[in-house]
Amino acid sequence: MDRPLKILHLEDLPADAEMVDRVLRKAKLWFEKKVVIDRPDFLKALREFQPDIILSDHSLPAFNSLEALLITREEGLHAPFILVTATVSEEYAVNVIKEGASDYILKDRLERLPNAVQNALDRRRTEEELARQHDLQQKLVMETSIQVQEKEREQIGKELHDNINQILAAAKLYLDIAAKYNDDTQAVALEKCQRNLNLAIEEIRQLSQSLVAPSLGGMGLDQALRKLLDNFPLSASLRLDLDTSAYLDDIGDEGIKLTCYRIVQVQLNNIVKHSRAHNASIILNRTPDRLTLLIRDDGIGFNPAKKTGGIGLRNIRNRVSYYNGTLEIDSAPGKGCTLSITIPLT
Predict the structure, then answer these.
(1) How many helices (H) does the chain have, and how many strands (E)?
(2) How confident is the model at residue 236 (pLDDT cuts 50, 70, 90)?
(3) What percent of the chain has pLDDT over 70?
(4) Domain that holds residue 188
(5) Domain-embedded: residue 252
(6) How many folded domains does the chain comprise?
(7) Which of 32, 232, 314, 317 has an alpha carbon 20 to 30 Å from 171's alpha carbon atom?
(8) C-alpha 325, offset from chain centre
């Protein structure tokens, strides 16, 4: 810290306040301290002094440490709060800690105070860093989610324009031909129109199925993955295998089930579009405390250390991270790819 530590001390005995000063100076702490003795001055100091840490005696005239702690939190200030008192019952000390105090120090053991102050500040910095990392992760998840949505919209537009629209245009052409003739040409045109309409219906069904989240209520994750593979549009050269023999008991968390379903869906799309694989396999395993998912292919592979512009793997990583899971990528050029995903269930 490039400035003095700002300490707010709630203490009505000047001798005790000075004793605390001496102990902190002896420990070579660099600080600026403000002493207050009642509720109005305490509240004013919270708002104007903005302390880094608060030391509070237990009992003051018409005021006590628990009230001071509650006021601090009501003001939205999360500075560490340490109870420094002459006597206090074990029950009261535990209650104050439960309410959010960092520590309590008896005045006849003030030699513990510098360490208590440093420990409380270290814990606070750790909490702030964890909160900052959480915020960054949430922003990354949001950013990736927006990118995925934009990518999906772009893909929908291409599918509608380049594929389904062309099929329907051909069907319309055959209807126009059929309207002009009343012979065998009409029958052939109507047959081709019907075939194109059926093809368009199937294309729309597959497109919709890839976008709309399935209802997994009442369906096990293994069943949902089997259904996904049975209906997945594959190239003729790709063989898919699903092994759920070690998935003996379905998990109850619908969010984790849907996350695993989406991960498999995203990675299968990656395999079909980029890997040039002939074989791919999915292995689902569950123990009482964790879920593991392995997705392998024998495609061209890639260098995991090399940054790519794709968002598929980033999407998978963020989904896994959301449930405090781990993702390991084993791949190399010409060596295929294996995704190993572990999600804790406890």
Answers:
(1) 10, 12
(2) low
(3) 90
(4) 146-211
(5) yes
(6) 3
(7) 232
(8) 10
